[in-house]
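Q: Focus on the chain.
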Amino acid sequence: MRIKQSLCYPLFPAENMSLDAYFAKLAEIGFQAFETWERPANFMELVQAAKKRGLALASFGGHGTLASGLIDKTQHDRIEAELRTSIDIAADLGTPGVICFSGNRIEGLSDEQAIDIAAAGLSRVIGYAEKKGVNLNMELLNSKVNHPGYACDKSAFGLAFCKKVGSPRAKLLYDIYHMQIMEGDLIRTITENIQTIGHFHTAGNPGRNDMDDTQELNYRGICKAIAATPYEYYVGHEFRTKRTDKFQGLREAFELCNQ
């Protein structure tokens, strides 16, 4: 079965065209969904315009503040409340999962302690996510280039966190670009842990640009490997295109990953 592809709307906004024309163009390319990082003011307008053209909402941010996340127990009340709201919205819209963040490292806190605290925080709402059928996807981000200090910057941290929570609804947002920077060995890690992955993000490295021959990742091979697994969710494009026509960049990415 071919993988389902999405795109991150904040990086490819509808400019100088109606939302209907925008989503019609994406549908023509073959995209099955779009996603947002947060819930913008026109969130439901985007959702309805996309639905009209057959595109689903693949993912959105479940709680605020990337830097102040689940490893900070003082944030747990806020995050629980925000996640409950996001879970309700996702369940109503048929969105399979929402994004969670570890937050930045706290001085004096070991990885083991951070994982315990983060798991305790997510456990406060994981039963509700199970009841609603919504995945809570902890995002893996690099701390070397883009997000200095971010705690969940290696797959081992994320996998230990999910295991600690102990729920099939606790999953990872495996960002291929970020994990290439931090550790590589992507296909092996992905295929061995596919049951714990609830969403993917893409981008070319270095530069977080188009997935062409100016960068080091073999996205055709990576997507073939994903397609060969039982993975049922989306691969979301999160790159910044250098193409003058953003739809050209999206079409190239779609065709490359249409495995």
